[in-house]
Amino acid sequence: MIDYACGAGHFLTEAIEEVSLQFINIDSKRLSGQQSRYFQSSKDNFLWARDYIYGIEKDQRLARTTKIALFLNGDGDATILSGDGLDDFYYSLKYNNKLKSKKPTQSISSFDVVASNPPFSIDGFINNVTNSDTNFTLNKYATHKSSEIECFFIERTLQLLKEGGCAGIILPLSILNNKKSIYIGARKLLLLYSTIVGIIELRSKAFMATGTSACILYFKKKCFSEIEYAAKAFQKDFEGSDEKPCI
Q: Which pTM value belongs to this model?
């Protein structure tokens, strides 16, 4: 599981708690001696979090806050990186393990779950995105003054998820009906590469300090055969297009 804009780590601590509740469903009596010892150690010491829980936060202070919060919850081994959630999978100096690719690529498809509340509306964000022209198909809709960073995080979510992986991300409500090219492109990616499971409208009172109407978007990444079928079904929409797949 990954949160690429983890803030103070609330989604991560909740995710770890949810996983921990599943340990009671495992019959440890059926495990061998070595398996049983590893299981008990992982269960009691949250050692599994090191390999399965990832958080990225650009603000170094918040990244440290997340590490402290996880440590206080007993799961301080989770991988928390102080870096950019839109960084390059290959060239990044911050990414490691499941976030690191061995060759330049747009996608790593390494995670089962993405849960996040990414930033909205940051003017000129594109100027700080590494290799945005090769890493994001939506880059062609952005200018140096663009603020629609949430669209890039939608594409990044699809790049991170495995086939059948699930996502729950908080987005501005405008993502559903804004007629700008970049929003249309983001919706096209969602419809092509994922199955929308649910949408919850939060409206403006959920984030009263900003007044932004928001929603929670739940979706599941399609398997590659489904994506190929969808691409053929909508082939006319892509004729003459220079778009590259984001996965």
A: 0.87
Length of the chain: 247
Assess contact for 41 and 77: CB atoms under 8 A.
no
Q: Any idea what the Cα angle at residue 67 is, between residues 75 and 153, rounded to 5°?
A: 105
Q: Which residue has the tokens 């804004």?
A: 178
For residue 108, give the 3-state DSSP assignment: coil
Give CA 100 to chain center in angstroms: 15
- 127 CB contacts (<8 Å, ≥6 apart)? 144
Residue 192's nearest CA partner among 152, 237, 139 is: 237
Can you read off the two tokens belonging to residue 27?
Answer: 């019959």
* Sequence-distant (≥ 6) Cβ neighbours of residue 108 within 8 angstroms: 89, 98, 99, 101, 159, 160
**Any residues with CB less than 8 A from the CB of 83 and at least 6 apart, and which?**
56, 57, 58, 92, 94, 95
Q: Where are the beta strands (DSSP E) in 83-121?
A: 111-116
Quick: pLDDT tens for 51-93: 899 999 999 999 999 998 888 876 778 899 999 999 999 999 9
Question: Could you report the per-residue pLDDT of 136-186, keeping only the tens digit for each?
Answer: 999 999 999 999 999 999 999 999 999 999 999 999 998 999 999 999 999
